[in-house]
Write a structure and sequence with these properties.
This protein has 1066 residues and is mostly helical. It has 6 domains: 143-214 and 223-275; 308-335 and 358-405, no CATH class; 408-640; 652-790; 801-933, no CATH class; 955-1063, no CATH class. It is 69% helix and 0% strand. It contains 50 helices and no strands. Helix 15 runs parallel beside helix 20 and helix 38 crosses helix 39. The radius of gyration is 39 Å and the shape is globular. Its main location: nucleus. This is Importin N-terminal domain-containing protein. Keywords: Nucleus, Transport.
């Protein structure tokens, strides 16, 4: 049938699901002679059939028809596989038309379809499908799948019969993928472990029978029988690996697992010890298959050592395995690396001769990682988990074995020498990439090194660090001696120097600690002269040394660099960043640009000595940013500039315009790279902080970024927007913080628009974003208080955004919210006195904020009335309750009348009158202030507020005269303690003479906050004077001292009255 004939779209009823219609649509969907319209129609038709019964059964039938074109069959199995992976057809929540009967029919054909499939690509897709279904359906719906597979694998077969061979190979490949699927799912490990022994036995038997012929083979002339045997050997190695690593919790305790590990490892040892482990001669598919087997077994060793070190060490022969890996590392070291002269050697086709890693290199890489794993098991107490006494005893035994058999002293010393002298050396391909792709090479070497697991040299650096950490006393003296010899001998070449300097940098921390107490000693300051000599060497190979010197100084600057030598270091970096010197190629200069950040960000950095070198250093790094092409390299250099901006403060001014001018184009180049955008935003934040009030000219670009991220109409993807949200808020805060005092009309219009459109949404974000948004709100009402406070509806919305969470906030978050609300009340008082406070108080009520605050205090009061096992615990306690009372105290101190009218609404909401409300509120307030408020300014604020309430002469206040007098005595004594003048209040500061000005290092925003704080009544009112005034007012209201004595003072304990009298208030 011609399935590629013209396709005519028909209504659903006229195009029913059938084998022929399905094949026709699959042919078009696979793109066989189909136009765009036909392809879309076919795709739509296939989607419509998905909900029909029999659709996936038909798909499997099409896949199994070997007479159909490959593309049609491939699309059929992909359709079925995707439906299972996405759980459209097979999951518990499946929505498509696969009933239990259809599932059973599909399952019944899966194994057969694999056994008979000659095409490896199609067989693999069917194996993946089978594995997914086994994971889902075994054992409930498909209990016999492993029995069926075992019957095939464990049964006899004719090696000469191609049909039998294909069936056996497919069965093993199928089992390999199923075991892999089960081993990935932690919930299915029990299934794998249950089946592990019965699967391992027959697979091991096949491995043994197939591997014998390859133990001593030394050439590439594989016979057809060898090729067939390899076809079975590859999947068996994969199965054994996963079963031993994941199929047993304690494989070293299982006799079968131990036997299998020994046998497969003996095969690996026999091959690994040969000069050509996978044979010599031209690479063939058979040789590649043998390589796969050896790599699978090496991966098994590594995974056991990393994930189950007790098992690996406990297996018989594991010490010999590690010794063999070390021998591979030693042998390979003889040919690893290069001389500088080897750069540029290429094959006739132009490719590098050592560009692709050989089998031995891959095995060496796994050997290095295995040494790291066993070393970690010996050194890290957390590497081996031991819960029971038996496991703890076994752990101790394993550590002893590792010490004595795996890492003898001679082996450690030899390993150190090999790593430093051989594996720290760049290969010819490394150096060629340095020449051909300097930008990319430097980014790979100087950036993130998480790819060390795929690089012999980088993994050797990690192993070196591990050795230094574990065998410090044995290794560090050798490194120091080597460094002294290298620096004192001018005849030593660049390759060797670069290796020694690499070791000197990596081990810097341990070398410094060792040198403080032991011989031989090392002082990095003494190394600077010989390093400068190296920088003067004009040999082309010394560019390697130049790059390494930059890294070396970047490491040691945080550890040991004298103040006197810092200018010398700046000169070194000026030299390394000099483009006119031909030895300072792009790699050298970019490395120096990266490492300059370490020099600048050091804790002991001082601005003044740096100023002389700053112009040239900044200029050269900025020029370098325009020269490099890779965006990530640009961003790394920009981070260096950002550190310079942060450290130089106002001294950055001469360079600021040039730096900021680069940023818009860099922003455009970032695309959707969030991390690079964050670097730009951080630099801008540092620029505003450094430039202070002189940063106005940079507001335009900053506001563009803020708006691009925070605006509801942002064009950024949602994930990118959320990732940049906190950074944009930081930038917004930095802009506001560095605006000098001005009116709203003088502000950039975008700042006012952002206030109205973006602040309230930000206040509803997570805790960190909310903290910054609250500070932004504070910045606005301190900068333009009149305009801010005139927007009553906006203040209501601001407070309403915080009200719902008041009672559940943790102390830190509560302090952030209430600090801003308290500042708002203070700013309103400074601007309009009691009328301003009334405005904010009304907003507190209208927004529901006061109701939540009041309800929280009532909740705390009720909780404190309960005791015993059934006592109520309130979240409003301690610091949180202090925050609640602070808002009431600010309002009450300003005006008792405003206070009483403000609490009227929430009191009514609680269903009690004002007198009853004041009784429980004052009981809680006095109790909390006396017992739990320990911060002197807070304690004084509470006392001042309650003293003002006392002046009303209301019975609910006068009735608590003893509590109030007790509080007066306590707080006044603490405020006058240590002073000879008992009339002096330690919290009262001398107000500034004239306008408040920012001090050095203080931003304009910080100055505004300091100004508001300096005007705080807590720091301007003497509490003793206030009490004296209040007592006089109340005595007068009561009709004189005698009436006051008879009606109220008589109720106060004599001791309290005497203590109060000694204060000399009245």
């Amino acid at each position: 049938m011609d399935y590629e004939s013209e396709f005519i779209e028909l209504p659903g009823e006229a195009n029913p699901l059938s084998r022929d219609n399905l094949i026709r649509n699959l042919a078009l969907g696979a793109g066989r002679s189909a136009g765009t319209n036909d392809l879309q129609t076919a795709t739509k038709q296939l989607q419509e059939w998905e909900s029909q019964s029999q659709f996936y059964v038909h798909l499997q039938a099409v896949f199994m028809d070997q007479d159909l074109p490959f593309e049609v069959r491939y699309l059929a199995i992909l359709q079925l596989l995707n439906a299972v992976i996405n759980k459209h057809a097979w999951g518990r929540a499946s929505t498509q038309g696969v009933n239990a009967y259809d599932k059973q029919r599909i399952r019944s054909q899966l194994l057969v379809a694999s056994y008979r499939e000659p095409d490896d690509r199609l067989a693999r897709q069917n194996a993946l499908l089978t594995a997914k279904i086994v994971r889902s359906d075994f054992p409930r719906e498909w209990p016999n799948v492993f029995d069926d597979l075992n019957a095939t694998i464990g049964g006899g077969f004719d090696h000469q019969n191609p049909i039998h061979l294909l069936q056996m190979r497919r069965a093993l490949e199928l089992l390999q993928i199923i075991v892999k699927e089960l081993s990935k799912a932690s919930l299915k490990l029990s299934t794998l472990r249950q089946k592990a022994p019965e699967l391992l036995e027959p697979v091991h038997h096949i491995f043994q029978s197939c591997s014998e012929r390859f133990i001593n083979i030394s050439d590439a002339n594989f016979s057809i029988d060898d090729t067939n045997a390899l076809g079975l050997l590859v999947p068996t190695a994969g199965i054994i690996r996963r079963i031993l690593v994941r199929g047993y919790q304690f494989p070293h305790r299982d006799e079968l697992a131990v036997r299998v590990f020994q046998n497969v490892s003996l095969f690996w040892l026999a091959r690994a010890q040969q000069q050509h482990p996978a044979g010599s001669g031209e690479t063939s598919s058979s040789m590649k298959a043998l390589e796969k087997v050896l790599l699978q077994l090496a991966k098994m060793h590594l995974e056991l050592a990393e994930d189950n070190p007790v098992a690996f060490v406990s297996f018989p022969g594991s010490a010999q395995l590690q010794s063999t890996y070390f021998d591979l590392i030693r042998r390979f070291a003889e040919t690893y690396g290069s001389s500088f002269a080897s750069v540029g050697r290429k094959q006739r086709d132009g490719s590098l001769s050592d560009n692709q890693p050989s089998l031995v290199e891959k095995l060496v890489l796994r050997g290095i990682l295995l040494l790291r794993a066993t070393l970690r098991a010996m050194s890290d107490p957390n590497a081996i988990r031991a819960r029971t006494d038996v496991e703890k005893e076994q752990k101790e035994q394993v550590v002893r074995v590792l010490h004595s058999e795996f890492f003898p002293p001679t082996m450690v010393q030899n390993l150190l020498e090999i790593i430093v002298s051989k594996y720290f050396v760049f290969t010819a391909s490394d150096l060629q990439r340095w020449e051909d792709e300097p930008d990319e090479w430097e980014a790979a070497e100087g950036g993130d090194t998480e790819g060390y697991r795929f690089s012999v040299r980088l993994s050797a650096e990690k192993l070196f660090l591990d050795l230094v950490m574990r065998f410090t006393e044995a290794i560090v003296p050798s490194i120091i001696s080597l460094a002294h010899i290298t620096m004192s001998n001018p005849s030593i070449g660049a390759i060797q120097k670069e290796s020694v300097y690499t070791a000197l940098g990596l081990a810097a921390d341990k070398i410094f600690v060792h040198s403080e107490k032991n011989e031989p000693r090392y002082n990095f300051n003494d190394s600077l002269p010989p390093l400068i000599t190296d920088l003067q060497n004009r040999d082309p190979s010394y560019r390697l040394v130049r790059r390494r010197i930059a890294i070396l100084i970047g490491k040691w600057v945080h550890i040991q660099l004298s103040k006197e030598n810092r200018p010398l270091v700046y000169q070194i970096f000026l030299h390394l960043l000099d483009k006119s010197d031909e030895l300072n190629d792009l790699v050298v200069r970019v490395t120096a640009g990266r490492q300059l950040k370490e020099i600048i960000s050091d804790w002991e950095f001082e601005v003044q000595p740096f100023l002389h070198y700053a112009p040239d250093l900044i200029s050269r790094v900025m020029n370098l940013i325009t020269e490099v092409e890779l965006p990530e390299t640009k961003m790394a250099l920009l981070e260096t500039i950002s550190s310079i901006v942060e450290q130089m403060g106002r001294h950055i001014a001469p360079f600021a315009d040039h730096i900021v001018a680069l940023l818009p184009s860099l922003w455009d180049e970032t695309g959707d790279e969030t991390l690079r955008k964050q670097v730009i935003v951080t630099l801008l934040v540092n620029m505003f902080s450094s430039m202070g009030t002189e940063s106005k000219q940079y507001q335009e670009f900053a506001l563009f970024i803020i708006n691009a991220v925070l605006s509801p109409e942002s064009n950024l993807a949602e994930l990118e927007r959320m990732a940049l949200f906190a950074d944009a808020l930081d930038l917004w805060r930095a802009v506001l913080d560095n605006i000098p005092n001005m009116t709203a009309s003088e502000l950039h219009p975008e700042l006012l628009r952002l206030l109205k459109t973006s602040l309230i949404p930000a206040l509803g974000m997570d805790s960190e974003a909310r903290r910054v948004a609250l500070e932004i709100a504070s910045s606005y009402f301190l900068l333009i208080p009149a305009e801010f406070l005139s927007e009553q509806s906006f203040i209501v919305e601001l407070l309403r955004s915080q009200a719902p969470d008041l009672r559940t906030l943790k102390p830190e978050a509560s302090a952030q919210v209430f600090e801003v609300v308290e500042q708002l009340l203070r700013a309103a008082e400074e601007l309009n006195g009691a009328q301003g406070v009334q405005t904010v108080a009304d907003a507190l009520v209208e927004s529901g904020f006061m109701q939540e605050l009041f309800g929280g205090l009532k909740e705390a009061y009720d909780a404190h009335q309960t005791t015993g096992p059934k006592a109520i615990v309130s979240n409003v306690q301690g610091q949180v309750e202090t925050d609640f009372f602070s808002i009431l105290a600010r309002i009450l101190y300003t005006s008792p009348e405003i206070f009483l009218s403000t609490i009227q609404s929430p009191a009514t909401g609680l269903g009690v009158d004002i007198n009853a409300t004041m009784n429980w509120l004052l009981e809680e307030w006095f109790s909390h202030t006396q017992e739990l408020v320990t911060d002197p300014p807070r304690q004084k604020l509470m006392t001042m507020a309650l003293t003002h309430l006392f002046t009303t002469g209301e019975p609910y206040s006068l009735g608590r005269l003893q509590q109030l007098m007790d509080l007066w005595v306590s707080v006044i004594e603490s405020l006058t303690e240590g002073s000879e003048d008992k009339n002096k209040d330690s919290l009262v500061y001398t107000p500034p003479s004239g306008p408040f000005e920012a001090s050095e290092g203080q931003s304009a925003g910080e100055a505004r906050r300091a100004s508001l704080q300096s005007a705080d009544p807590v720091h301007n009112v003497n509490l003793k004077d206030l009490v004296k005034y209040a007592v006089g007012v109340v005595i007068q209201k009561c009709g004189g001292p005698e009436r006051f004595q008879e009606e109220w003072l008589v109720n106060v304990d004599k001791e309290v009255v005497e203590q109060f009298g000694r204060l000399g208030v009245v």
